[in-house]
Structure formats: C-alpha cells, structure tokens
Records
---
Amino acid sequence: MARRIVLLCLLAVMSAAVAAKDIQVRMLTNGPNGQMLVFDPDFIKVNVGDTVTFLPMQKAGHTSISLLVPEGAKPWKAAPDTQISVKIEKQGVYLVQCDVHKSLGMVAVIQAGKPVNLAEAKKAAADFSGKMLQNKDRFDKLLAQVK
Ligand SMILES: [Cu+2]
C-alpha cells in the first residue's frame, strides 16, 4: 500500500516535470505577414509553471519588459538584444513591451491559467496604447483572445 502511494507520488512529480514547457517567442523587426516590430507569437497561452523565452532574432535593440504582471508575480526587464527566460509562476494576464519600440506598438500578451486580472490588464493596456504612435489596436486584438 505504502509502496503504491510512493509510486503514485513519483508519477505525479514526473508528469508535472514533463508537462512544463518552454515557449519560444521571437523578437522581430520584420515579422510574419508583413508586420513590423512584433513579438512572434504575440499572444502566448501558457500553463503556470511554463517558461517563456524571448529571443532577439534581429538586432534592433529589442527588449522584453513586463508592463503588468498578476499580483505576486515577478516583473522582468531584459537588456536590449538580450535573450531572457521568464518562468510563469502566477496565473493571470501579463502585458509585455519592447521598451525601444513601445510607441510603435511592439507588445505581447501572456495568459497563464485563469485571467484573474483581466480588467486591470485592459485598463493598463488602454492607458499604454493611448501613448502609441501606431498599431494602437494591437493590445485590444491580443486581449480579445484571452478566454
Ligand atoms: Cu523592439
């Protein structure tokens, strides 16, 4: 009996380890479909425990910086043209910006589990988008994909 419980616990630990994914997001000057200055993908749905790795594919000073994270989650800030891996430890919506190109709408949204802070994220995105010079609708389009 005790042995069976130990075995079940081991299996649970192992499957959790296997299930955690590393999702790669490319930071691009020339993106797919003729889009300029994008994260690809720019809507990233993950599970809590997954890691999101931002890769500078084309040197242009691209950065990955959190603009908003759920309560209790750690914000992050990568240096320009630098790779960063972010472990997602809290559920909710994360807003991401490229500091150099934020005014041009280089943004992304991460959803982990339930979007517990969606209203807050929408408000922050609206404030932020108001200061953009182009692609002002990107955050809206991304947040519309949050389910
Ligand atoms: Cu950029």
Note: The CA atoms of residues 92 and 117 lie 6 Å apart.
---
Amino acid sequence: MKSLIAVATIAVLAAPVLAQTPTAPPKSKSMVEEAFSKHDADKDGTLSLTEVQAVESKVTQADFDKYDSDKSKALSLAEFSKWVEATMTAPASKPG
Ligand SMILES: [Ca+2]
C-alpha cells in the first residue's frame, strides 16, 4: 500500500510539471545571427570587410561587394544572411 501512495504522490507532484508542457523554445538565435555577431567584432550591428576577413580570410572585396547590396561598405544582418544562405547552398569546397 505504501508504494501505491508513493506513486500517487509522485503523480500529484509531477502533474503540474507535465501540465505546463514547455512550448518549443523559440529558436534561440538563428544560426545566421550567431554567425553575424561572431563576425561583428566591434558590435556596431554591421560587418565591415575587415571584420568578415578576420573570421574568413579568403573573403575578397569582390565577395563582399556582391552582398553589400546598398553599397554601404558594411553588411547588415539581412545582407549577411543572404551571403550565408548562398554559402550554405553552394557546393562544398574542395578539400585541401
Ligand atoms: Ca561591425
């Protein structure tokens, strides 16, 4: 009998926890945002070519300009996310 009570107690204690099924946590920061803040060394909310190159040294001015659609010499999150998308969908770079 004791064990039955124990089970009942556990069930009661557990109920509120189970009741509040946590809604799926909002995708914390998106991957793009995370990458963006990683690149944004001075945290001004935009990426300069220097900042991008600090992380990805093979990035050229031409690459940068391609995605700097408003020619502000800085990438906004929107511009950067386009770049990331393009990078993601590009074929894997050759090894070596
Ligand atoms: Ca910056």
Note: The mean pLDDT is 83.
